[in-house]
Write a structure and sequence with these properties.
- With 501 residues, the chain is of the alpha/beta class.
- The protein has two domains: 149 residues, 3-Layer(aba) Sandwich (Rossmann fold); 280 residues, Dihydrodipicolinate Reductase, domain 2.
- The protein is built from 16 helices and 17 strands.
- The strands form three sheets. A nine-stranded mixed β-sheet has the order 16-15-14-13-7-12-11-8-17, with helices on both faces. It has a six-stranded parallel β-sheet with strand order 3-2-1-4-5-6, with helices on both faces.
- Helix 7 runs antiparallel to helix 15 and helix 9 crosses helix 15.
- The radius of gyration is 24 Å and the shape is globular.
- The two termini are 23 Å apart.
């Protein structure tokens, strides 16, 4: 990650946002130190954050602002060792970092006065509360902010996923926060929506006359969406054992990607227009219930193995007891509307897989008639690959003639757009982009409560069927790409998973 700025690279200059104060509850936690503070530093480095802004960390831990600044720096250097801090830039940024120890669950704590003093005189400035906290306390923290006079007419609140663990709990979270903040002030964050390639999906689809006419079931054979991780549950094991892959990844990340691939053209790119089309997709998802759950879903759990050459314990050994929580899931999903009738979407996600990659594969249908002799080689259908991580980019696989004499020989080759090469040396990551989107009031990159609840409504049906039908959890060796049953899911349809290469 280069410290060279956009101005040095000749790429688009970042436009400054308006001054703001951001208060991060959970400011000493992993999310704040690993993602949020580095994101804010990079936006400061690119001169996007005005000098009158304040960045305030808050948690129950007692420490001084100077101690917190040092903690932020230490963690930055630990997590991003290749990103050398420029001393002058860092020192200027650090002057705007503050820390206030507050137990956000204690409404009557005197510590709220310390936060109020730090914010004194800034009621007209944009104020953002970022809750890097467990979702079960979002409502209580929101109420405590309001009760202590820290909510202004220009206050926005950011909620991290997951919003609840099922439809009922999601409604409770939305209702409790909604009692304090209007819907247009609530930013439910899904960092996948901040990835450059995800945002580019709408432009790729709707601004290119080459693609939109063939973006339907008449021309597309199927769609694959994969989010593969090499990491184990690790320190999140206690949380993860109550969640599993379906709740942790499918309900939010994968369904959001599915919506952007499948949605109809919105009338414009305003938040309400985009969200309305995504909600239509979620409501069109065919239910996976007791009649189809064994045929259309796979559950997996990693056992002892090796990931990238390092030994890895099995998941049950990590959590310390036998468990049927899935660390991998694969789904065959249908969208019952005119555009996608009978075109399946295959979703998969898992931990301790062979590699770390996230991508969308649009597999087009084969050509209707081949005029070539068999010895020319196999004609493969066109394939559009949208890589979200690592190495963000777009690749279109096409058939072409292999140059040279000696007859007609075919080769399957890519037309390749690499973001790293095209927009070098650096462009903002997901959290950088989303934090600035909150400041700009761009709600289109965040989830409406209706989206969250529609996704949970569909996922709850699967969870219920898994429980009622006692759907088994198949073991897979850590360092592989899930249980063999995931391959069978596609093999029954004469298809196979794209390997992520």
């Amino acid at each position: 990650m280069s410290t060279k700025t956009s101005a040095d690279s000749g790429s688009s200059k970042f436009l400054p946002v308006e001054p703001f104060d951001i208060i991060v509850f959970g400011g000493s936690g992993d999310l704040a130190l690993r993602k949020l503070m580095p994101a804010l530093y990079h936006r400061w480095q690119d001169q996007q954050i005005p000098a009158t802004s304040k960045i305030i960390g808050s948690a129950r831990t007692k420490m001084s602002s100077e101690e917190y600044r040092q903690l932020v720096r230490d963690k930055f250097e630990e997590f991003y060792p290749e990103d050398k801090l420029a001393e002058e830039t860092w020192n200027a940024f650090a002057e705007h970092i503050h820390y206030v120890g507050v137990d956000a669950l204690d409404q009557k704590s005197d510590d709220w006065d310390d936060l109020k003093d730090l914010l004194d005189g800034s009621d007209e400035k944009l104020r953002i509360y970022y809750l890097a906290l467990p979702p079960g306390i979002y409502g209580q923290v929101s109420a405590n902010v309001d009760a202590n006079g820290l909510k202004t007419d220009r206050t926005r609140i950011v909620l991290e996923k997951p919003i609840g663990s099922d439809l009922e709990s999601a409604r409770e979270v939305n209702d409790s926060v909604g009692e304090v903040f209007d819907e247009e002030k609530i930013f439910r964050i899904d960092h996948y929506l901040g990835k450059e390639t995800v945002q580019n999906l709408l432009i790729l689809r709707f601004a290119n006359s080459l693609l939109e006419p063939v973006w339907n079931s008449r021309h597309i054979d199927h769609v694959q969406i994969t989010v593969a991780e090499t990491v184990a549950a690790g320190e999140r094991a206690s949380y993860y054992d109550k969640a599993g892959a379906l709740r942790d990844m499918v309900q939010n990340h994968l369904l959001q990607l599915l919506c952007l691939v499948a949605m109809e053209p919105p009338i414009d790119l305003e938040a309400d227009s985009v969200r309305a089309e995504k909600i239509k997709v979620l409501k069109s998802l065919r239910k996976i219930d007791s009649g189809t759950v064994r045929a259309d879903t796979v559950r997996g759990q990693y056992k002892e193995g090796s990931v990238k050459g390092k030994p890895q314990k099995g998941y049950a050994e990590e959590v310390g007891h036998p468990t049927d929580t899935e660390t991998f899931t694969a789904l065959k999903v249908h969208i019952d509307n005119w555009r996608w009738s009978e075109t399946p979407f295959y979703l998969r996600t898992g931990k301790c897989m062979s590699g770390r990659w996230s991508e969308i594969v649009i597999q087009f249908k084969s050509v209707d008639h081949l005029m070539l002799a068999p010895e020319s080689g196999r004609v493969q259908p066109s394939r559009l690959i949208i890589r979200l991580q690592p190495d963000e980019g777009v690749k279109l696989m096409l058939m072409t003639k292999d140059p040279g004499p000696g007859g007609m020989r075919l080769r399957y080759v890519p037309l390749n757009l690499s973001y790293a090469e095209t927009f070098a040396p650096r462009y903002p990551d997901a959290y950088e982009r989303l934090l600035m989107a909150v400041v700009r009031n761009n709600l289109g990159l965040f989830m409406h409560r209706d989206e969250v609840e529609a996704a949970w409504r569909w996922v709850d049906t699967i969870l219920g069927a898994w429980s009622r039908d006692d759907v088994p959890v198949h073991l897979y060796t850590a360092g592989t790409d899930g249980p063999v049953q995931a391959s069978v899911l596609l093999d029954r349809d004469g298809r196979e998973w794209f390997d992520g290469a």
